[in-house]
Every structure is written in C-alpha cells, then in structure tokens.
Amino acid sequence: MTARKRRGAGTDTGADTGPESVSEPWRDPMPPGFRWPDGVRAAACFTFDVDAESPIVVDRPAAADWLDVLTHQAYGPRTGVPRLLRLLDRRAIRATFFVPGWVAERWPDALRSIRDAGHEIGCHGYMHEGSRGATADEEAARLDRALAALESVLGVRPGGYRAPMWEVSRSLPELLAERGFAYDSSLMDADHPYRLAVTREGPGPEPATIVELPVQWALDDWEAYAYLPGITGSGWIARPSELEKRWRAELDALVDEGGLFVLTNHPFLSGRASRVAALGLLMKRARATEGLWIATCGEIAAWTASLELEPVEQRPIELPPER
C-alpha cells in the first residue's frame, strides 16, 4: 500500500488497491515501477519549438524569396519569444525550448535571450528536417551539424531532443544515445515518461536506453493556429479561449491519472498577444494545482532515469505475406 500511494501521490483514481490489483496491472494508471517524487501527483512541461523560417524553407525552398511568408515565421524570434519570456518570468516557470541549429545561427540574439533567462535549450534538428526518406547516415550528419551550431552560438550541448514534425525513424533513438542525449520528446504511446530501449548494446547486460517524454497532437498549437495560404492549415483558426479550454481539460485529466502533461507551442504562433494571454491562464491554473510539478523536460528526464524501469522496446512490424 505504501508504494502504491507514493506512486499515485494521494490521487483518488478509483482503482482497487486490494490483492487482485497486483495481478491486474491495468487497474493502476501508473506504469510498473514508475512514481513521482514524494508529494508530487503529476508533472507538466511547457515547451516551445523555435522553428522560425526553417520548416517552411526546408520544404519549399522557393519561399526564401516570399517576404510575406518569411515575416509570418520571423514573428517567432522577433516578437513572440520576448513576449513568452515575459510571461514565463511572471509565472516563475522554467520552460524547455527546442531549437533547430540553423535557427540559432540565423537568430543568435533571440536564442541567447532564452538561454540567459534560465530556460533549457533542446535540439530540434538542424533545419527542421524530418526523418521520412532519410538514411541513418543523413540523420547522423544532421544531428552533428545541429549540435555544432548550438554549441557554437549558445555554448550549450543539449541533453534533450525533439524530432522535427515528430518524425522518428527506427535508427534515430540509437543515434541520439550515441551522441549522449539523455532524452527524446517525440513519441506518442504513453502518458508517463519511460525508458526507451535503443538498438545498440549497452555497457552492461541491459540494453542502452534514453528517456522518452511522450507528446500528442492535441497538445500542440500548430493544427489550431497555423495558416499560410497554400502552404499549411485549412483556413480555420481557433480562438485562444478554445485552445485554453482543451488544454485545461487534458491537464486536469492527466493530473488525475498521475501523468505527464507536455504542451508544445511555437513562438510564431502562440507568441501572438491574445494567445499568450490564454496560455497565461493555463499556466496560472497549473501553478494552482496541488501536487503538480512544473519542470523542464531535462528535470523530468533526470528523475525518470533515476528509477529502475523496465526498458520499452518498440517492436518492428512484421507485415503478413500478400495473398
């Protein structure tokens, strides 16, 4: 009972704590072996992908001459980042900013302001290139170029990675482990952090692992806010109040489940004035939630790495033969 209560940190989930629950793990919302620090019910990370122009020009090189499109994206580092830093300062929240190396090179002052404000810097590829169609050698070269850029511009060697467009090949986790990344935040199969097994052999009998901090599309602002005619979006743009309500519902539900809430925002989208105001309301609610640990991705990953968790293996798909 003591271990179970500590994992749930007092959250009433309605689960049966009797002997039968031991043989029926589905009754406990907490994964086997996982728990939060004493006094913590759940955790939340506020994260920002500082994409700037990179996702547009890497997909459409011709857009490098489209000033209307470029300024839509440049709003992020030029205007959105300072406004978000002011919000985070008011709410006393340390966030994680995932940055493509190319963006650091193009917008060094904006990125240094994030670093100097005390926030965590994560790696987001070099020029927001996804994994689809890339070889392992190509992905490795992009990672190395991104790390070199972030170290050169910011003097930072990130411990965390988020895949551009959340595209993750089977070879990518191994490449991350080889480069010393402690965690990834790109996969979508859980509500709690876990150890992700990678394919290379570890130093001991156990497989090498990195920590995975799961994400989901419903906690991303792109689909709701992004619109560039002929490039992205449907033309329907959500009200900030609608998104705040959606995100608040997921936050409350994940707190009840003892889970991890990872919100992904983009400064060129959520850095707009009314959207920052709505995000501030969500942060206020999170700060007022008893037992909710608001932390950087790196802090959550370090805690998870300290636990003795069974590594999760992402099994390959074996397609049946055609008839």
Gist?
This protein has 323 residues and is an alpha/beta fold. 41% of the residues lie in helices and 11% in strands. It is built from 13 helices and 9 strands.
Protein described:
There is one protein chain. The protein is of the alpha/beta class and 323 residues long. The chain is 41% helix and 11% strand. Helix 8 links the parallel strand 4 and strand 5.
* CATH architecture classification: Alpha-Beta Barrel
Assign the CATH topology. Answer: TIM Barrel
What best-fitting shape do the alpha-carbon axes yield? globular
Low-confidence stretches: 1-21
Computed structural class = alpha/beta
Extended strand count: 9
Approximate strand percentage: 5-15%
Radius of gyration: 20 Å
Average pLDDT score: 92
- CATH homologous superfamily heading: Glycoside hydrolase/deacetylase
Question: What brief labels describe this structure?
Answer:
TIM Barrel; five-stranded parallel β-sheet; four-stranded mixed β-sheet; 13 helices; 9 strands
